[in-house]
## 1
Amino acid sequence: MAGNDWINSYLEAILDVGPGIDEAKSSLLLRERGHFSPTRYFVEEVITGFDETDLHRSWVRAAATRGPKERNTRLENMCWRIWNLARKKKQLEGEEVQRKANRRLERERGRKEATADMSEDLSEGEKGDLPSDVSAHGDSVNGRMPRISSVDTMENLVNQLKEKKLYIVLISLHGLMRGENMELGRDSDTGGQVKYVVELARALATMPGVYRVDLLTRQVSAPDVDWSYAEPTEMLSPRTTENSMQELGESSGAYIIRLPFGPKDKYVPKELLWPYIPEFVDNALSHIRQMSKVLGEQIGGGEPVWPVAIHGHYADAGDSAALLSGALNVPMLFTGHSLGRDKLEQLLKQGRQSRDDINTTYKIMRRIEAEELSLDASEIVITSTRQEIEEQWRLYDGFDPVLERKLRARIKRGVSCHGRFMPRMVVIPPGMEFHHIVPHEGDMDGDMERNDENPISPDPPIWSEIMRFFSNPRKPMILALARPDPKKNITTLVKAFGECRPLRELANLTLIMGNRDDIDEMSGTNAVVLLSILKLIDKYDLYGQVAYPKHHKQHEVPDIYRLAAKTKGVFINPAFIEPFGLTLIEAAAHGLPIVATKNGGPVDIHRVLDNGLLVDPHDQQSIADALLKLVSDKQLWARCRHNGLKNIHLFSWPAHCKTYLSRIAMCKPRQPQWQRNDVAFENPQPNSPGDSLRDIQDLSLNLKISLDGEKNEGTSLDVDDSADSKSKLENAVLKLTKGAIGGAVKADQNIGGSKSHAMRMKKYIFVIAVECDSISDIPEIIGAIMEAAGRENSMGFILSTSLSISDVHSLLISGSISPLDFDAFICNSGSDLYYPSSNSEEGPGLPFMVDLDYQSHIDYRWGGEGLRRTLVRWANSVNEKQGQIVAEDESRSTAHCYSFKVKDPALVPPVKELRKLMRIQALRCHVIYCQTGTTLNVIPVLASRAQALRYLYIRWGMELSNVVVFAGECGDTDYEGLLGGVHKTVILKGIGNNSIKLHSNRSYPLEHVLAFDNPNIVQAQGHCNEDIRASLHKLGVIKG
């Protein structure tokens, strides 16, 4: 507290007021607390827990009052308010403790139930290893994923890739992205992640075997940002060609691809991007499809070259990558960078905001759900440190280190995991290019003498910009490089420097805090931090000892490190928590010893480099002592510098990329099944052994049906020659659809013709995805939509529903609607895809044909029978508490949809609770309440009605921008997925209102994910022909 005069005065005032207060008129605070020490309370409970700026403002108001009596009353009221804040904080902390206790119980219960299913005795093997090399798991016992246990193994895997020509897609959506002159620190979205993903793309493109890398981001055409962010494509020139061994091609290299989505002419912060994610996914799908064809012509012999992996960075890109991975059936990788659950816990600990307030500000629950989905979909989760796995990822429902070890032990012993899966956690520290760095060997005085003798090599301009602040620029420089964000803890650093006289006498302090023109134009939080720092500089009279330049360019950052090294200075990162700490590696590469926070990634960096000291970021004295020790002990400084330079190669980009590619090589290759390209690795081992159908997931039937239902002869593309595999899949599908499609599908039947051509030629495709309160109302709405379309040949129709194909057939009969009026039927909430058939000689079944390619397309991580048993057990537990309200509906269940009847929707847990239960048990699925809550459908995790439309785009070329989706005002719990994207949407007023109750207990409100200002969404005033035509006219679909 030394030097905090206002705090000392405040304490004195509290002490003074104590004896003067009449016991009978004591405050609520004194009455409730009894023997209360205001001083001790203030020190222990307030100073450490609340923002000083707010307290100081209150103190100024109190000190301005006149008269002892008035002043005493004011101070007492202040004391009571502070106590009330502390009580609220403790209440929030108590609620959080209870929530964590409940979470532990849920997790233990989930482990027990999962272990009960996996009944084999693996007590010895289940002890497992540490969660540092986590495998993805499945049911098959035919293969086991080898672990990368040595450098030789990794080199062998990388060598296998040298003859390949791989296409890799990276996604990073928020912030301002460009290859040169990055505006790092411009705002909270444009930071270390932007630099990392750009350098990763650049480095991967130079690796042998990698042909092209696309970094997908948002195109920004706003007037307040540079024009370069509106350029659709930017090629990233390689920093070095020493590792580039492959033959260059027309489209090879690394590229930033900027795709438009969200509001035009506006730069949007990441918290507000969620409603526009589907639009990005559709545009990215179009780019990848087009690029795959281009690469196919160049290097694929005419066959499309699909991405070998899609890598999402941060939660928003993880959500996008999961949808793209599901639409394309390619492996997904994920890097969180910073995690929502960890941030939520940190904010709750501060006690300044409730959970609802935090969710409103940061859209934190939507972010957490995106991270959970990324765990569901990812083959590999890449982390920078082990701490991220053990302390942050374990907070998520979808990852449990204990259950992971059990699953890994079973995989090693070749025992079924009963449909349970865990993503593979891999620690790969970020890389850096060192070829251009020449560590400085001289000192400040020697360099100044040489510059006097040799004026031809002037100092970089940024040096003079920094040194102009110092009265003695020859002193060692303590360098901090971070934006003025509270979590970066720069204010504690300035206090430590200001209150340590020996440190001030020995060193200068340089603070590189991004770029600014005017403090008043900065974001509120950053402006507050910067003003606090300026006040501290004034308070401690640090003028001539602290530099805080307003501007610097990205290419000048190495010069700043060099200046600090010349002065024999120290680099410090005092952040409260640092996920990794790339600046620490950069500083070490320039020969700077480091002082860093002991929380997070710096621990792993220090373990490798051994080039500095770790400190408690909350301990101001510890920070000052560490800095003083390094700048005063020249032998220690030289030893730390030497160690850093000696070991820094372990963090190079080539080393990073070798490990990265070796992990991709471990993934089981996946891509669209009807057009396979030989990109498989030699002797591949399956990364995710699947369930009972996994061994036949490569089957391709190539169903191609013309719009009029005519069956034409066609040629099969790469059809699997295994008759047994085909038969297994066909029999499984037919069995679980209860013969609904009769004999309409034959495993040796190739249905070709004009489906692809006809889908592309349709002017518009009307997707009827209306969920009525009464199923019997659906035929009427179908008829009205078809009548509004005028039954033109240029219009196509798709029915998208939660109903089974048998129910659909009954509905069509009741409404006298022919199945041949439709081009496709998306049934069971998106788990089944059918086409109409006009051949009446195919047997007694219904007039539909199932797309078996779609079945294998969505089969990824499907839990099969293990999932069904868990759902039945859940239903029984609900029935024990509430009576017989949930029952399995075998008549509507199919191979990829387990359906349950719900008697009373008000008595069953909300969808988020059932989804959490499945994730805790490592079961990956998509849980949907349908038909006003009377039906529960559980389908594959990456299947949905929206994803089925993207499949039709990839499979048949159906342009998504020509799709018009008809939906009600509300619908099933997958309702939000139907409204976003590049397609047009007509919302039918008065339809589906009874489904609103299904959305009343969501993790996040619909307005956080729906763009209500989207011009592609219109509302019809009713569902009659005239209302529908008026809406279609607004959208420009029909004239007149």
Note: The domain at 462-651 is CATH 3.40.50.2000 (Rossmann fold).
## 2
Amino acid sequence: MGGGRKRIRLKLSRLYSFRCGKASFEDDHSQIGGPGFSRVVFANEPDCFEAGIRHYDDNYVSTTKYNIATFLPKSLFEQFRRVANFYFLVTGILSFTRLAPYTAVSAIIPLVIVIAATMVKEGIEDWHRKQQDIEVNNRMVKVHQGDGVFKQTEWKNLRVGDIVKVVKDEFFPADLLLLSSSYEDGICYVETMNLDGETNLKLKQGVETTSILHEESEFTNFKSMIRCEDPNANLYTFVGTLEYEENQFPLTPQQLLLRDSKLRNTDFIYGAVVFTGHDTKVMQNATPPPSKRSNVEKKMDQVIYLCFGIVFVMASVGSICFGIWTRDDLEDGRMKRWYLKPNDSEIFFDPRNAVAAALLHFLTAIMLYSYFIPISLYVSIEVVKVLQSIFINKDIHMYYEETDKPAHARTSNLNEELGQVDTILSDKTGTLTCNSMEFIKFSVAGTAYGHGVTEVERAMERKTGSPLRINGLEGRKDSSSKSPVKGFNFEDERIMDGHWLYEPRADVIQKFLRLLAVCHTAIPEIDEDTGNVSYEAESPDEAAFVIAARELGFEFYKRTQTTISVRELDLQSGKKVEKEYNLLNVLEFNSTRKRMSVIVRDDAGKLLLLSKGADSVMFERLAKSGRQFEGETRTHVNQYADAGLRTLILAYRELDEAEYSNFNSKFNVAKSSVSADRETLIEKVAADMEKDLILLGATAVEDKLQNGVPDCIDKLAQAGIKIWVLTGDKMETAINIGFACSLLRQGMKQIIINLELPELQALEIAGDKAAINKVSKAHVLREITEGKALVSGGSADAFALIIDGKSLTYALEDDVKNLFLDLAVSCASVICCRSSPKQKALVTRLVKNGTGRTTLAIGDGANDVGMLQEAHIGVGISGVEGMQAVMSSDVAIAQFRYLERLLLVHGHWCYRRISSMICYFFYKNVTFGISLFLYEAYTSFSGQPAYNDWFLSLYNVFFTSLPVIALGVFDQDVSSRDAIKFPLLYQEGVQNVLFSWRRILTWMINGVYSAIMIFFFCTKAMDIQAFNDDGMTAGRDIFGATMYTCIVWTVNLQMVLSINYFTVLQHILIWGSIAFWYIFLMIYGAMSPGFANNAYKIFVEALAPAASYWLITLFTVITTLIPYFSYSTIQMRFFPMYHQMIQWIRHEGQSEDPEFCDMVRQRSLRPQTVGFTARVAARSSRWEGSLGADILSDRRST
């Protein structure tokens, strides 16, 4: 073997009797060479002429949105797709014509600044993607350079046909055809976590004829041709043929190693590159995630359209008035408005062509009133959202130290949506639970062992209000306590430390533990430094079983091609002895069989069939003589299920030589079959062997609730958020987890919909699919109708809906789904069991579209991706099931409990900040735009702006934009502590209180009022009277600058009145914006008259020396703001909103007064029906009812 390492020679194909067999030519292979199956690969000849003319993609992968050539045109196109930006582009172009009321430069520069800022942001985000691409493309891999020499090269340099060598724990650089491995028969183990989220190892096996190529030098003269399917997105299919040494060999998915999967438990493999770059299956699946926009942003677009409508109305009104006045301007041959010099105008003020003049004025007005639209709104919101995302990412309270995982807002588009979630749809395994299985209990020979207390048992204790007494034992070990051995949390003095040797049925316990140590497909790994044995298993459950066997005296430590070696406690001597079991067959677990078995020969020559599986299939396979402990075991299994544990039944039987020989021959025939029912034949042969078993006992492993899940759910329920659980687990387990996390409680009426009907079982035996579908649908519809009648019957009880996957299939049909949704939203809790990934996505879509409310889906596995992408917000748990869910999510967190802070704190803050920011934006622009309209009307709609060109341009860019950004980033109505302490505050976002049309229009009306007050106060104060001591009257330049000063002061002081939480930066930006206006006036006025125009030295020589300027500013600003200040004061004092009540509590120093805080909490918008709080309330209600009944009974008796 290359590198001088000792080569492992294991023939492991026997371990995997179902998946690993000699591939055969089936129907699919007849398509090779036809449409969709035309790819030809010349292995080890990537430079040959035939390969060159096919022009296959190189292995360079790009996930960027732009490149150097496309950045400018594509980014500009993206910017001008926004209707507001397109509008400003059109007005900017028109500003180069004589129609413009201002200079073209002053109109174009603000647009350029806004567009450039957004493009820079886009460019930075794309550069980060580029950096990730560079890192991946520059990874190194060994490639055959010729003459048996392999050299390191970058992934991006790989070509179709290259032979590569991948070593243990490296990723595959492209889609490879497996040729050989460090194992003698071409076996290798692959981890596909990056592809499908599954942590269990997949087995691959190369073509038998190439599996002998183990040395690098053996590839010197290797040449072959591969004909296969064209690039496609299906991860689980591959059809092709390998032509080698004038023979053809069929290829299946078993020989294909996919890019981004990892080589595990195998020293090395050799492979031929089949698909490269964007032709690989993982890149074919890399579809862009759905474009999601928040409800606030969608409504903001509607407000902008409203503003467009107002602009067109104002322009139309002004143009009509202007046309009428222009037409009437000529009287007896004289011009009434002689100062407009209509004689010098070709058309603009020509009374003889008033219609054309009105139309041209309309275009002028459209340009002039463009300041009614906030040009910097979009870019300001994007900047604010990015900064908000940074705060979310840096929140130390959502950092999980154990895995070094902080929260990660993967998109900033949905920050405010986090504050409006109405329904959470959650996966269970790995999301509510840890997906870390721990062996906690077992039953052997009718005796239950294990003292651990599960989360569910503790919940049941809380539910019943009585201490736990199971099996006469109290004060048992809490299963949530940290176990020193991962996967093993068992404690029982009767078993531990070899004490099981002294149990009455020690012989049965020995067989039980031996079965755990032998019946599996795990691979042992021995640490060379410590000698400790660890295991790689196909599932967390299986790893827990092997670890449990090791801790209880049966250590599995070695596997060869035909043997399993175990160090086990001897029943007679009580000492460890090494035993070797010859492994003859492995009958694998799958979802249909629900069991796995191994056939082994022990050192005494006995043939043993060892089997473990679900109780639903194992009890029926017991022999009459093997049911000695069935009753007790069933009881224990039910208890374990009630405790939320996963159970398996363990059984065995001895085989005779003739029986095994007959089975083995049939099994080999079935494996060699090329018919379409090959799998059915194999399963039938296996089922015939797995019968007449002798029961040993049952195992119970716990998939524990994550820390803080019950408390988090309780807080979310107090916030009025509905929580649905969508899981693939069976109904009993899901119900028990529901009790553990307080989604279910005692006294809650359960509406259970399933298809466990005797009538259906008879139809399934008969195989009448049409009748099955008809009866099933009718039953589901009847159950839904009855449930709806029960819920709407006026009962005060809370209801829980629990439905299984089969029933869900019919409940989601078009003519039933609305009834199902009506029932579901009427229930306090909804649990969907045995749900497929597609059903999870369909339920999410139904809730999203049917309720019209914001939905959040949370999950951790690849099976949750559809649900995450379908919901308004997808939250991925960065747990142990890979990164597929995280990569498809909008926000990633490490633990479910962080959802509480993400929604109640960051969600509420972001919603409030963005809502207030947008409302304020429209307020300040309406104020500015209406002042322009009023001046236009005052000057008979002459198209003359009230302000200097640069005053117009810089209003939104410098004088009013920075404080509003600070508002969007820093403002807090309540502290994070109070946001969690009073979760009902979250309902302000759910009910959209802060961004309703009423609130938006109120702010806009406030802007109209402010503009009217400023305009008329300034007009009347300066009308026909001396402005300064020299007796000079105010002209347009002085009037415009004064009115502009009043607007700058008013809108910035309005910000001061609106802010709840001041920071130093906000003070700097607000007062700095006002100060910058005066600084700008002085600098701009000091420039040449040709550039400064009518602002030349206006502040220094005209405004600053005039006391009236300062008095007008002071009086106008105070008068304008008094109504808002008065309204806010009255509302805060007499009609406070919920957040204002919390502010009062904090202000009065009563935040630590439990009675006062409870009074505020009780101002609930809806009664809480799930969570610990609801459970306590229900218990108190029952106690009060019982007490009241006793008192009434005493009175009657008296």
Note: The mean pLDDT is 82.
